[in-house]
Design a protein that fits this description.
It is found in: Membrane. The chain crosses the membrane at residues 182-202. This protein is an alpha+beta fold and 226 residues long. It has helices at 41-47, 51-72, 176-214; strands spanning 2-6, 9-12, 15-18, 21-27, 32-35, 81-89, 93-103, 108-114, 117-118, 123-125, 129-130, 136-144, 152-158, 165-169. The chain has 3 helices and 14 strands. The strands form 4 sheets. Strands 6, 7, 10, 11 and 12 form a 5-stranded antiparallel beta sheet that branches. The N and C termini lie far apart (122 Å).
Length: 226
């Protein structure tokens, strides 16, 4: 795709995305593909064997579409769509990912907020990704510690919006691991109480049996007879 600022300023953009991450991209200024991971090296080297041909094709694509783009794309505004998904694992802990998709132009601000305040640190953004339809997407990941009563929201500022989006997500109560720990603790306490009560009852019965056998236990006095 092409990123146009005006008819005299544009840049060819091509990205290969896997699992929401840019693994290979085309650097128009350097006239070559660049891989972000070692396992892409062989493919990138093969593509770069036709470096000049790739460069000329990029120029042709953008120059042929610049007038159409200037009339129909540069002036349009497309509002972003926002969704939030939670994730939990032993390695990463608790994560919230804010997916912001389908917006134009590409300039955008995305921040996580807790109880109305911007969360400092613990936020990671993916690179801005082109969708291939003149719109973009970006993901913002937050690592957090769930606490009862906390309210999280993904705050989005974009030129297309009349007012900023503040998309809420509220933790669904206590974490599952914490609930299990409390349930196990409660069951253990109940079991211990039952065992203790049974022991007390058995001890009292044994004591009564010993007293009855020795004849020293308490006796009721009958009424006197004439």
């Amino acid at each position: 795709s092409c990123e146009f600022n005006n008819q005299s300023s544009w840049t060819y953009v091509e990205q290969k995305i896997y699992n929401s991450e840019v693994i290979v991209y085309y650097d128009f200024n350097q006239k070559k593909y660049i891989g972000n991971y070692p396992w892409t090296t062989a493919t990138v080297d093969k593509w770069n064997e036709q470096s000049e041909q790739n460069y000329q094709e990029a120029i042709a694509i953008c120059e042929n579409n610049v007038e159409i783009f200037d009339r129909g794309v540069l002036t349009r505004l497309v509002k972003p769509r926002v969704t939030i998904r939670p994730k939990q694992s032993a390695h990463t802990g608790h994560l919230l990912t804010c997916y912001v998709r389908g917006f134009y132009p590409k300039e955008i601000e995305v921040t996580w907020r807790r109880n109305g305040h911007v969360v400092n640190g613990d936020q990671v953004s993916t690179s801005l990704m082109a969708n291939g339809d003149w719109t973009y997407q970006i993901h913002k990941v937050l690592q957090y510690s769930p606490e009862s009563g906390d309210h999280y929201s993904c705050h989005v500022h974009h030129k297309s919006l009349d007012s900023d989006i503040d998309h809420p997500w509220v933790p669904e109560g206590m974490p599952e691991s914490e609930r299990i720990r409390i349930i196990v603790g409660a069951l253990g306490f109940a079991f211990g109480f039952v065992v203790l009560l049974a022991g007390v009852i058995l001890r009292l019965r044994n004591a009564k049996a010993i007293l009855d056998a020795s004849g020293t236990g308490p006796r009721l006095m009958g009424a006197a007879t004439a």
